[in-house]
Each structure stands twice: as structure tokens, then as C-alpha cells.
Automatic annotation (TrEMBL):
Keywords: Hydrolase, Membrane, Transmembrane, Transmembrane helix. The chain crosses the membrane at residues 7-23, 29-47, 59-76, 126-146. It comes from the Archaea. It comes from Halocatena marina. InterPro entries: YdjM-like. This is Metal-dependent hydrolase.
Length: 156
């Protein structure tokens, strides 16, 4: 996916997550949107740094990098929710674009779905919106489905 798609995905995902996590429409909803949108958007932009340093769709587009972002908050109590942005970047590249990513880098094999479009296609925004909506439906289902079993999402 191109930069525009990743920015759009990060912003919409952050806003949607804010409403899912604090749905009452109060100041708390606005606070949650800001608290989630900023780190998710930053994470959504991070992997493409490898266009300048390293090998694009390999160096920063793999499961070890995602694992480091998931572990970071537990180790340093910092960068919460950034991993969601990194993960959604991978999803957009794997599902939404023709070229896959090297999930198991340094192994070179790139993995992708046949559902993607070219990064310069006129349909990139539509594909981005469909993928973002699907991600939000999954999160909504997990958050509210888990609540039925007594699980709760920790506050930001
Ligand atoms: Zn990418």
C-alpha cells in the first residue's frame, strides 16, 4: 500500500478504536480517540522507513519487528498501541497490495494475498477503507464478545 493508504488507515483505525473502547460519546471518547490515534498512526507509518534504510518490505516488515513493538510496552511501559499501527501496516501491505512482505525476514520469501491492488491503482483508497472497516469489525467483535465472558480491555 502507498503512504496515503497507511495514513488513512491509521487515522480511521485510531478514531474507530477510540469509539469502540470509549463509546459513550463524552469527553472520554475524545480523549480515547487522541490516545489511540496518535500511536496507531505513528506505528502505521513506521515500517516504510525501510524505503530509506534497509530493504523495503523486508527489513521493517516482519514478525520479529512486530514482536519487538508488542514487547516494548511490557519492558519499558512506553509506546502502548504503536504495535497496532505496525500490525495494520502489515495487513494493508499483505492483503491490500500486489507485493507481499517478508514476514520471516531475514528469510527473503515475501507473503501476500491475491486480493491486493497496485500501489498506484485508482482503487487503493477503496481497498484501504474495506480493510480498515474489516479490522474495526474484528476489533469490535473481540472487545464486545470478550466482555460476554468477563474479559475487559485495560484502560489507556
Ligand atoms: Zn509497507
Amino acid at each position: 500500500m502507498n503512504k496515503h493508504g497507511h495514513v488513512l488507515n491509521g487515522l480511521l483505525l485510531g478514531i474507530g478504536l477510540g469509539f469502540i473502547l470509549a463509546p459513550d460519546g463524552s469527553v472520554e471518547t475524545l480523549r480515547m480517540i487522541v490516545a489511540v490515534t496518535v500511536p496507531v498512526s505513528l506505528g502505521a507509518l513506521f515500517p516504510d522507513i525501510d524505503t530509506e534504510f534497509g530493504r523495503h518490505r523486508k527489513t521493517l516488515h516482519n514478525l520479529p519487528v512486530l514482536g519487538m513493538f508488542i514487547a516494548f510496552p511490557f519492558v519499558f511501559d512506553n509506546l502502548h498501541y504503536v504495535w497496532i499501527g505496525v500490525l495494520t501496516h502489515y495487513v494493508l501491505d499483505v492483503v491490500g497490495s500486489k507485493r507481499g512482505i517478508a514476514l520471516f525476514y531475514p528469510f527473503e520469501q515475501e507473503y501476500g494475498f491475491p486480493t491486493g491492488v497496485a500501489t498506484k491503482s485508482q482503487y487503493t483508497s477503496v481497498v484501504t477503507l474495506v480493510i480498515t472497516a474489516t479490522e474495526l469489525i474484528i476489533v469490535f467483535t473481540v472487545v464486545y464478545g470478550a466482555g460476554r465472558y468477563g474479559w475487559t480491555v485495560p484502560a489507556v
